[in-house]
Amino acid sequence: MNIDRFKSHHVEILSGIAVLRKLSHQGVVEYAVDIAHELKALSQVITQHLAIEDRILYPSLERSGDAAMANMSRAYQNDMPGIANAFINFARRWSNATLLSKKPEEFRAEANIVLKNIHTRMVRENREFYPAIEAMEEHSYA
Q1: Which residues, other chains included, contact 68 with Cβ-Cβ below 8 Å and sequence gap of 6+?
Q2: Domain ranges of the chain
């Protein structure tokens, strides 16, 4: 299974989080329109990434015949709904520049939690999950 698309999404997601962090530090009120725009773009990438994981990645790993990989996949899949739902609700709420301008500190507080969880998850997948998938693939061709 080629996971390049998933890796590419992770680069986009981590980059989007970095842009949001930078804009927030520069001023939520001053950059509210840019933050709302970036958040919408990030939401599209994350939504697409989650859909492809659910439709392709997890089912493929479940059918891989590798019990350890299937268990790891299930654990990652079971961990994701809470993170995903929190992000979806966050993105819906804060993709509004007017609300951002009115409640910048609320946005910052929520962003620190939600975006940190997404970031932590991406880093963990990059360090543990994706290398395990690639190792499984290498062994299946050996």
Answers
A1: none
A2: 4-141
**13 token code pair:** 């997601």
Q: Per residue in 96-121, is it b (16+ CB within 10 Å) or e — as a string?
A: ebeebbebbeebeebbeebbebbeeb
List the one residue out of 1, 47, 35, 20 whose CA is nearest residue 112: 20
Instruction: Specify the 3-state DSSP secondary structure of 31.
Output: coil
CA dihedral of 72, 75, 80, 83, whole degrees rounded to 10? -110
Q: What whole-number distance in Å separates Cα of residue 114 and Cα of residue 18?
A: 13
How many CB atoms are located within 10 Å of the residue 33 CB? 13
User: Which comes out higher in pLDDT, residue 139 or 67?
Assistant: 67
**In the prediction, which pLDDT does 141 show?**
53
